[in-house]
Specification:
Blueprint: H1 4-18, H2 26-41, E1 49-54, H3 55-63, H4 77-87, E2 95-99, E3 102-109, E4 118-123, H5 129-152, H6 163-174, E5 187-195, H7 198-205, H8 207-224, E6 230-235, E7 238-245, H9 248-264, E8 275-281, H10 288-304, E9 310-312, H11 313-318
Parallel strand pairs: 8-9
Antiparallel strand pairs: 1-4, 2-3, 3-4, 5-7, 5-8, 6-7
Helix pairs in contact: 1-2, 2-5, 3-4, 7-8, 8-9
Length: about 325
């Protein structure tokens, strides 16, 4: 029988989960809930180890274990290949793996921050079938609640994150409160995407076709960019991305890959669609609005100099084509 104290702690964790109003805080709330759940239904002498891990985090750790975030507790190296193989499966069910470190239980997560492919790991020597079933029920509650939170953060047409969510995400990044991967140092970039001649598309083909272009473009962005990259629709034909890159050249590679994918894509009835892109590096010393304005200046330059190109604000300044915006100061919310 679970003790009254343990049950009380579990209920407090459940209340804490339902107080979460943004997806970036869901994973910590889930881990807190599961810790108390396991204390009630799965007694063990040694402490239970748990972690939420996305495919992107997993690949990053495998690529650079020597540069890992000190706060990140690594699993033995033999575990990573097993986890990657599990995440690459089209359909996933909870499984138990025998590793050098002991029994490792893996549970698929349907909702986890911005990550599409994530898992909950529980290292436990004697997890009974009854306890596993209870964990799965607990995850069902989490998935349903997370779905409501994430739906509220999404644009109705494209399914991308909305402007309201953008404000919160950028503030967290600038406060170093959001780390979508564990390879360091990270460089954050804010990117603005704007469809070229979108008004002409609406005028020529109608708004239904225009909406279809927006929807298909958003899907192409999700397929091209990495799991964990933050993609937003700002309204109309304008999109914003926030990208975390381990190397300075990564952002160039990501944007060039998207440009290539877009160049090869043909939209029904419309055919080829081009896009102008402007981006700027984020910094804790800059106000969020300043970073947005700098990326917008780079976008405007791209629009005024031929469209269908990528322009970096810092590069334009170095070339003497733009002047630095000098607004800076303490971080403020939008």
């Amino acid at each position: 029988m679970p003790s009254h104290l343990n049950l009380k702690k579990f209920m407090q964790s459940l209340i804490g989960l339902t107080q979460v109003r943004e997806s970036l805080a869901l994973d910590p709330a889930l881990l807190s809930l599961m810790q108390h759940w396991m204390c009630i239904f799965a007694a063990e002498e040694k402490p239970i180890r748990m972690q939420v891990l996305s495919r992107r985090q997993l690949v990053s750790v495998m690529d650079s274990q020597d540069e890992m975030d000190p706060a990140f507790e690594a699993w033995p190296s033999d575990v990573y290949a097993l986890l990657l193989n599990y995440l690459d499966q089209e359909t996933r069910q909870s499984v138990c793996l025998d590793t050098a470190a002991g029994k490792l239980h893996i549970f698929p997560l349907k909702q986890s921050v911005a990550h599409k492919n994530a898992i909950l790991l529980i290292q436990h020597a004697q997890l009974t079938a009854e306890a596993i079933a209870l964990v799965e029920q607990c995850l069902q509650v989490f998935n349903h609640y997370a779905g409501l939170i994430i739906e509220n953060e999404r644009d109705a047409l494209t399914g991308l994150l909305n402007r309201k969510t953008f404000d919160k995400c950028v503030s967290k990044i600038l406060l170093n409160d959001y780390k979508p991967e564990f390879r360091f140092p990270l460089h954050h970039y804010l990117v603005i995407f704007d469809i070229d001649f979108f008004k002409k598309i609406n005028d020529s083909y109608g708004h239904l076709i225009g909406d279809e272009v927006l929807l298909l473009l958003s899907r192409l962005m999700q397929e091209t960019f990495r799991d964990g990259d933050l993609l937003f629709r700002f309204g109309g034909e304008e999109f914003v991305g926030v990208f975390s890159c381990a190397d300075k050249d990564d952002i160039v590679m990501l944007l060039e890959r998207f440009q290539q994918a877009l160049a090869e894509y043909r939209f029904p009835q419309v055919g080829r669609v081009t896009i102008s892109i402007g981006y700027s590096k984020m910094s804790p010393h800059l106000l969020p609005n300043t970073v947005l304005e700098r990326a917008d200046e780079a976008l405007y330059y791209a629009k005024e100099h031929g469209r269908d190109q990528v322009c970096c604000y810092e590069s334009l300044v170095e070339q003497g084509l733009l002047n630095y915006s000098i607004i800076s100061g303490e971080i403020e919310l939008f």
